[in-house]
Amino acid sequence: MPRFLSSSALFVLAIICSIVFFEPIHGQGVCRHQGKQYRNGDEWIVSNSFIMNCIVHYNRWETKIIACLSMLGERIPVNGQISDQHGVWKCEQKPNGSTRLVQQKQ
Questions:
Q1: What is the pLDDT of residues 71-91, one digit of tens each?
Q2: Predicted TM-score (pTM) of this structure
Q3: Domain named Abnormal cell migration protein 18-like fibronectin type I: which ranges (predicted)?
């Protein structure tokens, strides 16, 4: 004759199942980059030269370089440029997403 679970055991089982089933959905709500997690809209600096952004969609996430940083720490928009005492700084991004910071002496 089969044994039935007690109501408290069923409650604990329901909690465990909801954690297992809902954790993957919750985990999609963040971007992961180099071992760190970021929320939608978060920005962070990579390699002292690039500003990255976390974009979370309903079924996926992505990170993008949205700006570069000059030697003085000034923000340069992608495909933009600024001038300072060290020259002209350009933040160049190719269609494939590769981005580079270029300094031209004045």
A1: 899 999 999 999 999 899 999
A2: 0.69
A3: 31-98
